[in-house]
Amino acid sequence: RNQMKNIEWVTGNNFTVERGQQQIEELISTWEVHESWLHWTEFLQEEELKDSTRYHYRVCWSMPTRRKPIPRATASIYFVIEISKIKPATLPVEVFFTLESSRLIHRPEQCQFNEKWLKDIIENKIILMERP
Which InterPro entries match (predicted)? Predict the structure, then answer.
């Protein structure tokens, strides 16, 4: 059963940068990723647009091991939380994310996160590093 997992997002009028970061963590906790993956989340910037304000975050993933406690490569997922200046502030924020090295925009309520995406990013980086 491939059911979309999403969370109840904060409304525009209750949004804070910290709350956004907590909610991204909450969403990630619904993803099925192996426990050996570690990640950290950081707020990057606020972007003012004509019709909305966008808050940009980065979640950096790695899979350290006992043999290699410092991973050779990491994979980043970039989140945007958007608050409309047109729609009522009582509506939930809009959320989307992109994977490092991809322009495809994912919406949490429309796509099932796939751990393989993280593995592919890291494997591709390692291949590039090993090229002569």
Answer: AKAP, AKAP_28
